[in-house]
Amino acid sequence: MDATSTLLIPALYFFAGIIMGKVINHIGQYLPYLITEHDSQEPSTASMPHSAWKLAYCSCHPPAHWHDYVPVFSWLALRGRCRVCSAPISPGYLWVELICGILALCFSLLFPPAIALALAVYSGFLLTLSLIDARTFLLPDKLTLPLLWLGLLFNSFSDGVSLTDAVYGAVAGYLLLWSLYWFFRLASGREGLGYGDFKLLAALGAWTGWQMLPQITLLAAASGLLWAGLSKWKKGEWIAVLPFGPPLAAAGWLTLLIHWYIIR
Length: 264
Known about the structure:
By secondary structure, the protein is an all-alpha fold. The protein folds into two domains: 1-110, no CATH class; 112-264, no CATH class. It is 73% helix and 0% strand. It has helices at residues 3-39, 48-57, 73-77, 92-110, 113-136, 141-157, 163-188, 195-208, 213-235, 245-263. The two termini are 20 Å apart. 34% of the residues are buried. Mean pLDDT is 85; it is low at 43-55. This is Prepilin leader peptidase/N-methyltransferase. Keywords: Cell inner membrane, Cell membrane, Hydrolase, Membrane, Methyltransferase, Multifunctional enzyme, Protease, Transferase, Transmembrane, Transmembrane helix. One of its GO terms (molecular function) is methyltransferase activity.
């Protein structure tokens, strides 16, 4: 491989990654809006795409320009402020795009192309789910179920986990949190988990196999406790409700990444 190709391929992965980050930002705002509209039984189908873009951009509803769709550049060109009302636009949008680009770049340098692509898709789903759950306490089936099926499909072709272990992982992941949910509910009379958490762990099991589920669950629980502890230290009070999706996603992401890095 010549020097040009050596530089071009990682660059293409980086640009594909920041584009994926732009899509993640949009879905992170758009999908909860769709779910809310559907649950309210008053869907405004004609205005959904436009309204969803407004929601992701600024509360003053500025018109979208073509360069608003260019990842990274759009935020920098506006200097992090709305062009109409000058309200600050969260730098989180910029960071999501940059993180996705950097991850895709790293995957292209560390793994074969097929594995790098699969890990990028896996990371994109988990990041989207984490953002949505942190903002809305939702883990939509429209994301968790495709992630589960993609995990089974991936392991039917890869050498990482056998398809049998992946299927067992999906079933065991769901049943593990389902059992904890009912144990806690019967013991305390309260709900400690949501059904979206069951499906997310099932999806993680489909990607990592049943053998990795104990460490994913323990790592997620430890991460959640750390998150709650940091919040208590910073704000002086405990979080009333903690979304479990982000800790689960982080634990599942780290587990699969280490697994593939070791066996590559």
